[in-house]
Amino acid sequence: MSLLEVRDLTKRFGGLVAVDSLSFSVVAGETVSIIGPNGAGKTTVFNLITGFQRATSGEIVFDGMNLVGSRPHKIALAGVGRTFQVVKPLRGLSVFDNILVGAFARTGDREEARRIAEDVIEFTELARLRDALADGLPIGTRKRLELARSLATGPKLILLDEVMSGLNPTESREAIELIKRLRDERGISAVAGVEHVMQVVMSISDRVIVLNHGRKIAEGTPEEVTADREVISAYLGE
Ligand SMILES: Nc1ncnc2c1ncn2[C@@H]1O[C@H](COP(=O)(O)OP(=O)(O)OP(=O)(O)O)[C@@H](O)[C@H]1O
Ligand SMILES: [Mg+2]
What we know:
This protein has about 240 residues and is α/β, with parallel strands linked by helices. The protein has a single domain (about 1-235), classed as P-loop containing nucleotide triphosphate hydrolases (Rossmann fold, 3-Layer(aba) Sandwich). It contains 9 helices and 10 strands. The strands form 2 sheets. The protein has a 6-stranded mixed beta sheet with strand order 6-7-8-3-9-10, with helices on both faces. Adenosine-5'-triphosphate (ATP) binds near residues 18 and 40. Magnesium ion binds near residues 85 and 161.
């Protein structure tokens, strides 16, 4: 059974259709990438699923619960985590405390929250930076911290918006490793929004969905999608 089921999802901004009758599903434990050029609608899809924006029409069912119209904090509690394209760590707080804030979304118990944060800081390999302030961290580490904070909320599904953008090759490799471990070691489903077709990202995806002007133009395994003519023309022109 699907963990996430999106049906005929549409979002209009005035005359612009940012997401156009989009349907897809995510099975528990699966890593799906949504790829598409600039402005394709990837971030909007994530905003709709997490309740930051309201769908014009369509259905979003997560774990049997209809999410359309729910507030972001309720959706987070239901088990949908996210990271933002423009990362927003809590400035002035240490790496550990940033993760602790995530854990407190799951529990009001201080000891339990600390235990969760300790587990997550180890899992995300941020332990050596535990007392560092979030402000001064390089972009790759800030992105990792944001994933850690989201992970501490205990998601079943995590939406990763542009996880790879701005990362150097080493940081990209490390990010890919971490995303693989989300699935393989924790069984967490992920949907990764990716602007550019990158072989590395394709290699971690069980399935790839291609968006162009808000519409799904292809879906399949990474091999199927990269062989698709429409995909090639969306990226490279005719
Ligand atoms: N709040 C908004 N108001 C009006 N138009 C918007 C709004 N948010 C997004 N759009 C438009 O919707 C379309 C989809 O944008 P979106 O940010 O979802 O694309 P994206 O695939 O995430 O792009 P990028 O690769 O640049 O992150 C774009 O044309 C964008 O200009
Ligand atoms: Mg975006």
